[in-house]
Design goal:
By secondary structure, the chain is α/β, with parallel strands linked by helices. It has helices at residues 15-29, 49-61, 78-89, 106-112, 131-139, 183-196, 236-239, 262-273, 279-288, 291-318, 341-352, 378-390; strands at residues 36-37, 100-103, 122-127, 143-148, 167-171, 199-203, 229-234, 247-250, 256-257, 260-261, 322-324, 330-334, 354-355, 357-358, 369-373. The protein is built from 12 helices and 15 strands. The protein has a 7-stranded mixed beta sheet, with helices on both faces. A 4-stranded antiparallel beta sheet has the order 11-12-15-14. Strands 1-13 form a two-stranded parallel sheet. A hairpin with a 5-residue loop joins β11 and β12. The radius of gyration is 21 Å and the shape is globular. It starts with 14 loop residues before the first helix and ends with a helix.
Length: 393
């Protein structure tokens, strides 16, 4: 009996598990402390009213023999796929229903899509980065090459022709830094991927936060991207589905490697390993793309972006360098005084009872930086920034 030896190469615990343990230990010893959590990217506003209504209606349908639903075809109901394709049409992007795969979220598909690629492939991952990209490839024993995001390039690393890669992860707006690629920059990535015969796995989980029409919110707004890119998206941050779970992955029919269709491979994989998202949740997701749903989700996103604006204002007044927070719920700041990320985490937690995320948890280039999340109540964000203004490291 042998286990997967690649798991030995993982860190002992997932970043946010370690943070939760530290916060839990501190709270147990300081029961009167009001801890303001600005670390994990979990939403705090409720689901859009349009989705709640649709969820209730769908639940009622499941209680009636005439409208009861069993298994779907594993890839999602056409009513939701139609809504997704219509949403992309607003971006001037045409997506066929056969290219849309409904999922339970971006995190799952970002790891599961690796099933269709050889473990011999080399993976190019930006640093700092969302830990799931790294950990899932370590689990599969792939060689990982990092491209460096840093202060000088605004944490938007660009292709290096001296690096060969087969799989490329891109997240824009970026988690953790909040930085956003321009069309010109993404065009360079698409051209690089095509020259490498590589596949881009484009994480668009935060696409709804992009408010500038000149900035791409989908990789398919870039010429020839359908020849090299898979797009993964989630309704978790768009519409508060973190506890409801629904997203989608787009695999273009024209995306082929050595004459083999990735769309057909992913379809085969999903039919074998995935039983689909519940009818009730898909009806709730469909409502997100309705006129009322779009209006309500935009209102929620505007709320979070206003929180980010409050954070940016406080950091600017303190003279602290940062990126993000304009088209993203995340603000990525440079730790004051040149201290390391976990030292700053401990300081904020113990001195002013604020929880953030140490940048080093996202990679070596995150050392010396820190992420604050705008997914919080307005009063808490304002209080947290007031505490940071009054306390100086």
């Amino acid at each position: 009996m042998k286990l997967n030896p690649n798991y030995r190469n993982l860190q002992d615990s997932y970043l946010f598990v370690r943070i939760a343990k530290k916060v839990s230990d501190f709270a147990a010893k300081n029961r009167d402390a009001k801890i303001i959590r600005m670390g994990i990217g979990d939403v705090t506003l409720p689901l859009p009213a349009a989705s709640v209504s649709a969820l209730k209606q769908a639940a009622a349908e499941m209680g009636e023999k005439k409208t009861f639903r069993g298994y779907d075809d594993n890839q999602g109901y056409d009513f939701l796929k139609n809504s997704v394709s219509s949403y992309y049409r607003q971006k001037n992007v045409e997506i066929d229903n056969s290219e849309i795969f409904i999922s339970d979220g971006a995190k799952s598909d970002a790891g599961n899509i690796l099933d269709i690629f050889s473990p011999d492939n080399t993976v190019l991952i930006p640093d700092p980065v969302y830990p799931v990209y790294v950990d899932t490839n370590i689990m599969n024993g792939r060689k990982i090459v990092f491209t460096n995001g840093n202060e000088s390039n605004g944490f938007l690393p660009m292709p290096d022709e001296n690096i060969s890669a087969d799989i490329i992860y891109i997240c824009s707006p970026n988690n953790p830094t909040g930085a956003v690629y321009t069309k010109e920059q993404l065009t360079q990535w698409v051209e690089y991927a095509i020259s490498q015969n590589a596949v881009i796995l484009f994480d668009a989980a935060y696409e709804a936060f992009v408010r500038d029409e000149n900035l791409p919110s989908s990789i398919y707004q870039i010429k020839d991207a359908k020849k090299c890119a898979v797009e993964i998206c989630s309704l978790s941050k768009t519409a508060g589905f973190t506890g409801t779970r629904c997203g989608y992955t787009i695999v273009p029919s024209e995306l082929e490697i050595d004459g083999i269709s990735l769309n057909r491979m992913w379809l085969r994989r999903q039919n074998t390993k995935f039983n689909g998202v519940s009818y009730i949740v898909q009806r709730g997701a469909e409502a997100v793309f309705s006129q009322d749903g779009q209006s309500q989700t935009k209102e929620n996103i505007s709320y979070y972006l206003e929180n980010a604006k409050i954070i940016r204002k406080a950091l600017t007044e303190r003279g602290i360098w940062f990126v993000g927070g304009i088209h993203s719920p995340y603000v990525w700041l440079k730790c004051p005084g040149g201290i390391d990320s976990w030292e700053y985490f401990d300081y904020l937690l113990e001195k002013i009872n604020i929880v953030g995320t140490p940048g080093s948890g996202f990679g070596k280039n995150g050392e010396g930086f820190f992420r604050l999340s705008a997914f919080g109540n307005r009063e808490n964000v304002e209080e947290a920034m007031d505490r940071m203004q009054r306390e100086s490291y």
